[in-house]
Structures are given as C-alpha cells and as structure tokens.
Amino acid sequence: MPELPEVETIARGLARWFAGRVILRCRHVSPHLLKGSGRAGLRRLPGRRIVDIRRRGKYLIFELGRGMKMVFHLKMTGQFLVCGADDARDRHTHLVLSFGRRREIRFRDTRKFGRLYLVNGDVRRVLPETLGPEPLDVGRRRFLDLLGRRRGRLKSLLVNQSFLAGIGNIYADEILFDARLAPLRPASGLDPVEARRLWRSMRRILARAVRCGGSSIRDYADAEGRLGRFQLEHKVYGRAGVPCPRCGVAVRRLVVGGRATHFCPSCQK
Q1: Helix H segments across 19-138?
Q2: pLDDT tens-digit readout, 44-53
Q3: Domains of the chain: which residue ranges?
Q4: Catalytic residues
Q5: Of 56, 150, 153, 225, which has the fewest Cβ atoms less than 10 A away?
Q6: Is the pLDDT confidence value at 39 over 90?
Q7: Architecture per CATH, 140-263
Q8: Mind listing the pLDDT tens digit for each residue in 255-269?
C-alpha cells in the first residue's frame, strides 16, 4: 500500500499539472470506487476548478471550487495517471477526469480496493476520527508527549494511524533501523535520548523518501509513470538474510502485529 512519501509524490505531481484547471468531463466506470454520495456527486464535477491537490496521511484530497472535495484512498493498487486524451485505456481504469484535448487524470486500480468520497465542506466527515498528526509536521516536544502516552511495541505504534498518519511497513522498518531501535522494544521504555533519536530518524527517512519520489516495490509509480528511487536506499525492508550495511549481520524478518518486520538483530538490540 502506498505510504506517506508515495502519496505525497502523487499529490505534488498532479498539482503541478492540474491545479487551477477546470474539469470539463467526468467518466465513471467502476461501481466499486464510489463511497457515500454515489453517481449524483460525480455529475456535479464538470465545471469545477481544481484549487489544490494535497495529502492527509495516506489520503489524497482534491480541493475543488465551491467547497467540494474528492477524497481518495489508494488502498493496495490504486494509481493516478496523467495521460493524453487519445491514449488507450485498459480495463482497470475506473475514473477519468478530462480537461480538454491534451491531458486527463485517470484512476486505475487492478484489485478494485481504492475508494473515492465526494464531500461538501469539511473532509473530516470522511476521514477517520482518530487520524493522528502528520509525521513531518509534528515538533519534537509534541512527538515526545505523544510517545509518552503510548504503550506497546515500537513497530506497532509507528504504523498505528491514530498515533501518526501516513507511516506503514516500509518506513517504520527503515526509521527504526536508522534510530537503532528494536521493533519489539516497548515505546514506554525509551529514555529521552532514544526518543529524540527516533523523532530525528522519522523526519530524516520520510523527507529523504519524498525527495526520492517514494519506493517502487511492486507496481507503484508516480502520476507520470516514473518509478520511485528510495527502494535503492532500503537498509532492512525486504532484505531478510542480506548482510546489514552497518555491521554485516544478516537482516532478520519476523511478524509483529500481523505485519512483516525487518531489522538487524545486532544494531537494533
């Protein structure tokens, strides 16, 4: 599932192409995509201007004119594509937004798990009530305060969207490796130095991943079809049995809270 860096990359790419443009036509293909308002909401899209495209957690938000918003969750295989109006469409294309003869936005999803919510007013009506703060926005003091209120293992905490919004398996593993903290370590057991190190690693890894355009592990590409590059910098994620780049001990894989977890048993004691 695309995480914060991938969704942020998609949002920025789409905004560069389409912020300020007016939707001229909307073609809806899949009944699985829409949640809530249904087809009647789609009929109100033509004539609306895209004011901005932004991210909240793993959600992609299209800010439209007159207070209307489209909120997407990509789930496992959702993709946005910037295409020419005459480019061939495949059977996995479930929504098309046209802006004239030259370019259009297509939403493609092979497994049909992606979701679209149409909202008038506050997007919090469709976002989870417990969605936590943004990892790249939360300051050190706030982070330490949030951490001090939590129990449980560090890996489970980092992927908990009510703690921080947008981190998933890939970046939780890479953050913990960078911070030299074991994924099974109880959050309540960190001393102040370790907690500050975790905050710095979180910001460093996520910021670097955004600059690299995210991680292309399976079928992720940005809206212009470009692959991310951060997978080339992974130190532990998906590297079970490979020597740790820091100490040479083989990276291990275990399951924490139902999630595959990768770590170095020497560097992350």
Answers
A1: 39-42
A2: 899 999 999 9
A3: 4-125, 140-263
A4: 2-3, 58, 259
A5: 225
A6: no
A7: Orthogonal Bundle (1.10)
A8: 998 899 999 999 998
